[in-house]
Design brief:
The complex is a heterotetramer, with one copy of chain A, two copies of chain B and one copy of chain C. By secondary structure, chain A is of the alpha/beta class. In chain A, about 50% of the residues lie in helices and about 15% in strands. Chain A is elongated. The chains are: A alpha/beta, B mainly alpha, C alpha/beta. The complex binds adenosine-5'-triphosphate (ATP) (2 copies) and magnesium ion (MG) (2 copies). One adenosine-5'-triphosphate (ATP) binds next to strand 2, helix 1 and helix 14 of chain C.
């Protein structure tokens, strides 16, 4: 009971002194991602860990069991605040709902860096990334370039209401509409390869004339590709995330392209920014890690990069 | 003389019954205590007041949903739609308050109404359409409600609510979260409902032997409709707390909550065959679920290992209870 | 109709898939009378009363209560009209306490502002009163599932009394009761009569009809045959009306020569249920086990069969000690148990007669890897004939058979076994006089062919009539053993109540 | 004379039974036919051979998992772990073949072995640890297996398999997919198993009344272990087909498949209370699920509406069956 009574005092005092006392106590950065069940987040993790090594700070990367497990992620933030980490780098699965928890962190004197996905919150130290919307636009522009106005496109997307996939879809849709391409269909495939294949099989029935496919992640893209190959068709397929499997497929001349957000940089720069914030050094509000397309032209060097990152 | 004997006997019996009850709900409690002890050793933060309050907050929503789920499971049923009902009721509330500028309190009440109504529909499908098992009706509702939530919101979250809405989910008296106090209140009410009112007892009777319940003149259909309505209502209450907690309503809210709720109920010692289970067991079950996750987070266990450990702990917790019961029957 | 007639059922007909259960049946009940209902298994007795209590809906006919036509759509309606029933298939709540079961559906409540709360204190008081009336010493807090079938039957009686109805229906209330409880029940019934309450009483124990009934109606094949006054009729006449023929013999005991030792148990003990049980059963003889309800007979034989654990004691089968820890073990040793409670232990109600009959000996019907249905159908068909189970087809779901016919299925099921020791627990529970004889003949046949039969029964005449030897159990102990010759009613009752 | 009577009666019985059986499994069939008719009208592509073959392909995996699920539900149990078991068994196979260069056929067999083993563990937890309900053991396994799959693969898909591995999932004879032929074969085997072997009958008996089954000398524990082992095995077979189909094994494979499988079984007319259900009903149930999804894609229904429609169709299909049964009992 004595412990509990002095507890609040302790923490509040710490918030005051956090700026000065840093040199003395080791810096702990908690990176909280949307999930750790895909290559993408694994690479973010790798980047964050690398930054930790380079800057000599302790980095722990955590995430809920699935990208849609919003409350799981929020509980993670809460618990890391309790652990009084020096700073948080968070990729919010559901930005608006995360804001109260960011406020909480701020109140506890814990600076918050947003990575991969931005939130409309002024308290943030910085946003590190490019956003899924821009990625989607990039995919759209590529299809425009390849097919030109009047081109017939379908979009295979992840779960409705999952902001990541909503934004990627919207980005593409906006560009395609603007440039006068025909979006024959938008179908959900649960971010999963098997379902991506099934959905594409069915789409090929309903729209034999489809010329281009954008899938909001590489898993679905590779599934769709499989269906297209099975039907002996030649259709442009653009994926998202630049996962190792996607690169392999591009190199083999199967998958046409994949949107890459340089997840490694997101992780690395995110931690960098967090450490700066802890040390009280200035950080710019927006750190663009760049989004770009991987096609057969640049796939080789991308693969090499990836192999170094994943230490293969 | 004989009277005396009988009475003392009675007394003895009643005590024995009480003891047994306490023991039985203690069953899971033991698991919770063991688990907490381990975590307290492994993490210095676990026992901090702040953290305990986190657990209180993090267990609140599941606790609220689980008590509704308990009712359905007591009748040998199930409600898979709770997660979606939570989502739909909360987005309706959000739309009313934010987009239509309706008085927040009224909006909240309507939100609860929506939840209750969806539950009512589950009950009607079961009793009037005679669908063979609530699994079907509530699975259907699970999909329908989720879809409607997505349609109404165009799949985008609605955020930024007035304090009164946030109060239940985010407010606290001193260090104690309001949401936790709500849980306690709700559980006391349901305890009384289930143990002290005819309808409460009928719920057990229907699960125990539905035919016998009918022959005893119980209006089985009516009770079942009440049960599913309450389950929907509790899901909406959970939604209210969630919206307050995150100051946003989003269409994918409550995804997969049904599994957590069912787990809490079963870990809490209820039986899928119906007729067996207590609110306190369920509460402990819900807290266990929250404690596992909280502990793993404090220990910064990586997500993939977290799933492994959560799976093992669920099994372990229930197994502990099994062992306890066996000892109990041995000793008596 | 005169004003003393409280109930009148006119031209009631009811058919189920494949059977015409009731054909244009008339039935009437006077105020304060006890009206017996007799008939073979499957005659339509339970169906008639289930129509009266709204469990089934009649196809044709009318029901008048105190002269007014009434519609009864479900048991609730019946209860509201003051019609309460004990059903043949007990309808209790396994997990709820004795006290709660007694008042389920009509709880004693105290009205607070807006909610009705159960008054547990009063509930217990009232429950205790009723149990006392029945001379029944039961813990009000025990869950029903921990009671033996006979005790459950007594709780049902307590329950129906607690409803203080105008019409009380009892469908074979004594089928698993022994003399003592039956006597208590009769006292209660007479008290009801005095209060002007009418009772419809179904039983296959004819003596009871003569003891308590003012009138008796006999049914056969869904039709009402006659209504007459017991005082002016005889057992044989009633039987002739029931089965259409006379029974020359109720207990067709045959002389067989006692053979080798088949089963010997030594100091069998399960704490709290039975202690130091020792007895021996021989081939070629029927060993009767008598006792009051709750004496522990079922517990003992279940333990021998490996269905329940034992704390100590030895079991010898044909001279060799055997560890029996599961029914499989017992069956492997050629020992089978025909359980007392068909509903929970004997049958798979949702399966067909065929499925149930062959279940315990399926491997026997394997031809190569697969089951040979023709063989299974043939054997079950023979048993259906032999026990004259009333069912339109072997594919009928057992749940839809009459109580007695269900009981016959349980017995048929175990006759497919090539066992050498048969333990029957209340084998003739709910079986009509004619069929009983058939079952006794089967027992005779078994012992004649060198099997050993052990029969638990709460019906003393049956014990006395069929056993070569009789042991008596009281509160989990063997209190006496009698040879056929020197056994009689009084001696056994004495030992059973341990008054000696 | 009597003999004759008997035999004719016999014959009558058997025919009557057959008719009834056909009718009962037809129950869901009717729903499937109605659904297909509607889709055929709405979409010109629906009845094209190619599309029908797509449906065959797309229903194969769920069909394979569902028949295992049916066994567990027949015993009044459930297996929540099928999705994760599918994932773990297939990634183990993938690692053996791709990373360790083990002979593909051997790898596939080991993969199946892993699935069966995980199911076996489910059975042991149920019968030896006496966990109250398979919900707990299989929920635990669901998490454990998923976690292990993620750990073993470091969350990375493993792709590019030799033809022999792809054959089952992707191959086809003429237009007919191998996977569909596998399904037919498996279902015939399970039909015979359930109707013509003692163990098969015991599965129904246990679900009908476990106590009576035990007292009939059935080795209940053994049968239950067999049931869960087979369920695990069938999940692994589903995994085999999935890997062949997409030419990749990935740790998130089979996510949520348990719900589809259970839905197929229940739509197929099986009862959660156990003892009731047929393989053919289950097959039709699985096909219905696939047809709905296929139809929604063909009709380009927008994602948010898809969930709503799936929910409604599930309810509708089962309700049709309910109506049919009622008529049946009326007419006979
Ligand atoms: N629910 C049901 N469905 C189909 N048939 C039924 C149903 N209930 C009873 N029957 C049939 O109706 C007939 C009469 O059954 P009933 O239970 O009334 O006989 P009973 O006189 O009570 O026999 P018992 O003395 O064995 O109890 C029997 O042939 C039985 O198979
Ligand atoms: N499952 C159980 N758990 C605990 N006690 C039990 C259980 N079953 C029976 N008993 C108790 O064991 C005693 C014997 O009951 P049982 O019914 O076996 O006796 P019985 O001689 O067979 O009488 P009956 O005619 O009622 O079967 C009773 O006191 C009963 O309360
Ligand atoms: Mg009857
Ligand atoms: Mg008995």
């Amino acid at each position: 009971s004595t412990k509990s009574s002095q507890q609040p005092a302790q923490s509040s005092q710490e918030t005051k002194t956090s700026q000065t006392s840093e040199q003395s106590k080791p810096i702990k950065i908690a990176v909280i991602v949307k999930a750790l069940n895909s290559d993408y987040w694994k690479i973010v993790e790798a980047g964050a860990k690398a930054a930790g090594k380079d800057l000599g700070v302790e980095v722990t990367v955590l995430g809920p069991s699935a990208e849609t497990d919003v409350s799981g992620q929020l509980a993670l933030i809460e618990d890391q605040i309790t652990k009084k980490v020096s700073a948080l780098a968070v990729a919010p699965s559901q930005p608006p709902s995360a804001i109260p928890f960011f406020e909480k962190a701020k109140a506890a004197g814990i600076p918050v860096v947003l990575i991969d996905t931005d939130a409309n919150w002024d308290g943030k130290v910085s946003f590190v990334g490019t956003g899924n919307y821009n990625g989607g636009k990039l995919a759209g522009e590529f299809l425009v370039k390849e097919l030109g106005p009047g081109g017939k496109v379908v979009i295979i997307r992840g779960a409705m209401g999952d902001p990541t996939h909503d934004e990627r879809t919207n980005g593409a849709v906006d560009v395609l509409k603007e440039k006068g391409l025909k979006i024959l269909d938008i179908q959900p495939a649960n971010s999963e390869r098997g379902m991506g294949m099934s959905v594409m099989e069915n789409i090929l029935q309903a729209h034999p004339d489809v010329q281009g496919v954008f899938a909001t992640n590489d898993e679905m893209a590779l599934g769709a590709l499989r269906a297209i190959q099975a039907a002996n068709k030649k259709i442009i397929v653009v994926g998202f995330d630049g996962s190792p499997d996607a690169l392999k497929s591009i190199a083999a001349g199967e998958l046409t392209a994949s949107v890459a957000q340089s997840p490694y940089n997101i992780g690395y720069k995110g931690v960098e920014a967090a450490v700066k914030a802890v040390k009280g050094e200035p950080v710019e509000k927006r750190i663009d890690t760049g989004t770009y397309l991987i096609t057969k032209d640049n796939v080789q060097e991308e693969q090499q990069k990836l192999n170094q990152i994943l230490g293969k | 003389m004989l009277e005396k004997a009988k009475n003392t006997q009675e007394a003895a019996k009643i005590n024995w019954g009480k003891v047994k009850n306490i023991l039985s709900s203690a069953g899971v409690l033991i698991a919770l205590i063991v688990l907490s002890a381990i975590l307290a050793i492994l993490s210095p933060y676990f026992l901090e007041v702040e953290n305990l309050m986190n657990i209180a907050r993090q267990s609140a929503i599941n606790s609220l949903i689980a008590v509704g789920m308990l009712l359905t499971i007591l009748t040998a049923g199930i409600d898979l739609s709770v997660g979606s009902v939570l989502a739909l009721s909360s987005v309706v509330m959000a739309i009313l308050i934010k987009n239509m500028g309706i008085n927040p309190l009224l909006g909240m009440i309507v939100g609860l109404g929506v939840g209750a109504f969806l539950g009512f529909l589950n009950g009607i499908m079961l009793t009037k359409l005679h669908l063979p098992h609530p699994f079907i009706s509530t699975l259907g509702m699970m999909n329908i409600a989720r879809g409607l939530a997505l349609i109404l919101t165009k799949a985008t979250p609605i955020s930024g609510f007035p304090p009164v809405v946030q109060f239940i989910g985010a407010g606290s008296i001193g260090v104690v979260p309001i949401s936790f106090l709500v849980v306690i209140g709700v559980y006391i009410i349901y305890h009384i409902f289930l143990t002290r009112t005819p309808t409460g007892r009928y719920i057990y009777a229907i699960g125990g032997n539905i035919e016998a319940a009918r022959l005893s003149g119980i209006n089985v259909e009516k009770v079942l409709v009440i049960v599913y309505t309450l389950s929907g209502l509790m899901a909406a209450v959970g939604g209210l707390v969630l919206v307050g907690r995150v100051n946003a309503a989003y269409p994918l809210a409550g995804l997969g909550y049904e599994l957590d709720a069912i787990a809490a109920v079963i870990i809490g010692g209820a039986s899928f065959m119906g007729g067996v289970g207590t609110v306190w067991g369920t509460l402990v079950g819900a807290i266990i679920m929250a404690v596992i996750r909280n502990g793993l987070n404090l220990l910064s266990v990586s997500p993939e290992w977290q799933t492994v450990i959560i799976g093992s702990v669920i099994i372990g917790a229930v197994y502990l209870d099994v062992l306890r019961r066996r000892m109990e029957t041995k000793t008596k | 109709m005169d004003e003393k007639t409280i109930l009148l059922m006119k031209g009631i007909s009811k058919s189920f898939p494949g059977v015409q259960a009731l054909k244009n049946v008339d039935f009437d009940l006077m105020k304060g009378e006890v009206h017996g209902l007799l008939g073979e298994n499957g005659a339509g007795k339970s169906t008639l009363i289930k129509i009266l209590t709204g469990v089934y809906q009649k196809d044709e006919g009318e029901i008048f209560l105190e002269g007014k036509p009434v519609v009864i759509n479900n048991p609730r309606d019946a209860l509201n009209l003051g019609i309460a029933a004990i059903y043949q298939e007990l309808a209790l709540q396994p997990y709820l306490s004795v006290a709660e079961n007694i008042f389920l559906g009509h709880e004693i409540t105290k009205q607070s502002k807006l909610v009705r709360f159960i008054n547990w204190k009063k509930t217990h008081e009232e429950a205790r009163k009723i149990l006392k009336e029945l001379e029944l010493d039961l813990d009000l807090n025990t869950p029903i599932k921990e009671l033996g079938i006979g005790q459950q039957q007594m709780v049902e009686i307590a329950k129906v009394l607690s409803k203080n109805a105008k019409i009380v229906i009892m469908d074979e209330p004594t089928s698993s009761l022994s003399e003592k409880e039956t006597e208590e029940l009769f006292k209660v019934i007479f008290r009801l009569k005095e209060k002007g309450i009418s009772v419809i009483y179904i039983s296959h124990r004819l003596e009871e009809i003569f003891k308590i009934c003012d009138r008796v109606t006999v049914m056969r094949d869904g039709e009402k045959i006659v209504t007459l006054n017991p005082k002016t009729t005889t057992k044989d006449e009633l039987i002739r009306y029931m089965v259409g023929r006379t029974l020359e013999q109720h207990y067709p005991k045959i002389e067989t020569k006692k053979g080798e030792e088949a089963l010997r148990v030594e100091n069998l003990t399960r704490k709290g249920l039975f202690e130091n049980i020792s007895f021996t059963a021989y081939t070629g003889e029927i060993l009767g086990i008598a006792g009051l309800v709750g004496a522990g007979r079922t517990e003992i034989v279940r333990a021998i069969f490996g269905a329940d654990p034992i704390d100590s004691g030895k079991i010898y089968i044909f001279g060799k000690e055997r560890k029996i820890t599961s029914p499989q073990d017992a069956i492997r040793e050629g020992l089978v148990l025909i359980p007392e409670d068909r509903k929970t232990q004997g049958l798979i109600l949702i399966q067909t007669v065929l499925d149930n009959i062959v279940l315990s000996s399926l491997p026997k019907y394997k031809k190569g890897l697969l089951l040979n249905y023709r063989e299974m159908t043939n054997e079950s068909f023979d048993l259906i004939k032999r026990l004259n189970i009333k069912t339109p087809t072997a594919k009928k779901v057992v749940k839809e058979l009459s109580g007695g016919n269900q009981q016959k299925v349980v017995i048929a099921k175990w006759l497919t076994q090539k066992a050498r020791i048969f333990i029957f627990d209340e084998p003739t529970r709910g079986i009509d006089v004619g069929a009983k004889v058939e079952i006794y003949n089967i027992m005779n046949e078994l012992v004649k062919n060198g099997a050993s039969v052990i029969m638990i029964s709460s019906e003393l005449p049956e014990i006395l009539g069929m056993s070569d030897r009789i042991i008596v159990i009281h509160e989990g102990r063997v209190t006496a053993e009698f040879s056929r010759e020197d056994a009689d009613q009084e001696k056994i009752m004495k030992a059973a109540t341990a008054a000696g």
